């Protein structure tokens, strides 16, 4: 009697393994989540950068044109007012009190201060030269911190200084934020950071990035 072998029509057919799909999809999901997190982080830093830029740029505009906020109308730089005389002249505490008084109202101090505000503000908004901006901004914030001198509880005349913290204030916070923005290349998102970094001169001088 002849024996016939019957081929199993299902022998070459395999259901897809659920475990295998899970294994292959997990790295894709992780990569997607990482990309989304990186994108969100980039835009958060970029938004912080633009806001910080507006802080500096607005200070320049208000002090230049007397827009009625920190600088009264008619007292702007273009009206003959001094951007440094009021602040530095009123310093009443700290080891640099007399030095700041001698700087108050000096033409070089006015120009240096105003160009610093303008340059830092524009660079932050554009997202370029963030390393140099962080350095300049940190120096400016350090000087302003010394002018207010938070460690002192009393002014030089004995009156309360109204300091609320012996060390940390918004000047130090601003300085740390500027350094962080430069460290993470915050100009690459919502800015011209990538284009700036590709310029030949900037590419050859990393401190300009």
What proportion of the residues form beta strands (DSSP E)? under 5%
N→C terminal distance: 89 Å
What structural category arises from helix and sheet content?
Answer: mainly alpha
Estimate percent helicity.
55-70%
Describe the global form.
Answer: globular
The radius of gyration is 29 Å
DSSP summary, beta strand count: 0
Helical element count?
Answer: 8
Which consecutive residue ranges, at least 5 long each, have pLDDT under 50?
A: 1-7
Q: Describe the sheet with the most strands.
A: none
* SSE succession: HHHHHHHH
Mean of all residue-level pLDDT scores: 89
Task: Walk me through this protein's architecture.
With 209 residues, this protein is mainly α. Helix content is 59%, strand content 0%. It has 8 helices and no strands. α1 (18-65) crosses α6 (170-183) and α5 runs antiparallel to α6 (170-183). Residues 1-7 have low confidence and may be disordered.
